[in-house]
Amino acid sequence: MDPKDGRYDGVFHQIVQTGGGYEAIFDELFSWFRRKTDFFSDQKKAEVVIAQAGEKHAKLWKEDEESRKSTEVEKNKREAERKKVVEVAEEKKKAAAMEKAEK
């Protein structure tokens, strides 16, 4: 994860909480671009920049999601193996106790 990721999370969270959801972030961001920059002076370039950023982060989200799912599968697999080891140990303990009781 890039150390810059999350740098503005607090600001974005506040916008989402007070401004009406994800749409509010985009509305505020594009409002700022319109008022404070020449971002929209080249409409085609603006559209390309927006599309590329969306595609980049959609791809990163998909990779993050696949990684999360893979981690979850591995975690579940380790937990199942741990439970099996515990069950086997308990069965051995019961068998030993029964054997001892029979003597």
Uncertain runs are none
Q: Return the average pLDDT rounded to an integer.
A: 90
SSE string: HHH
- Oligomeric composition of the shown chains: single chain
Shape: rod-shaped
N- to C-terminal distance: 62 Å
Structural class of the secondary elements? Answer: mainly alpha
Helix content: over 70%
* Radius of gyration, CA atoms, in whole angstroms: 27 Å
Characterize the largest beta sheet: strand count, sense, and whether it forms a barrel: none
Treating each run of at least 4 consecutive H or I residues as one helix, how many helices?
3
Beta-strand proportion: under 5%
Describe this structure in words.
The protein is an all-alpha fold and 103 residues long. It folds into 2 domains: 7-40, no CATH class; 42-103. The protein has helices at 9-19, 22-36, 43-102. α1 packs across α2.
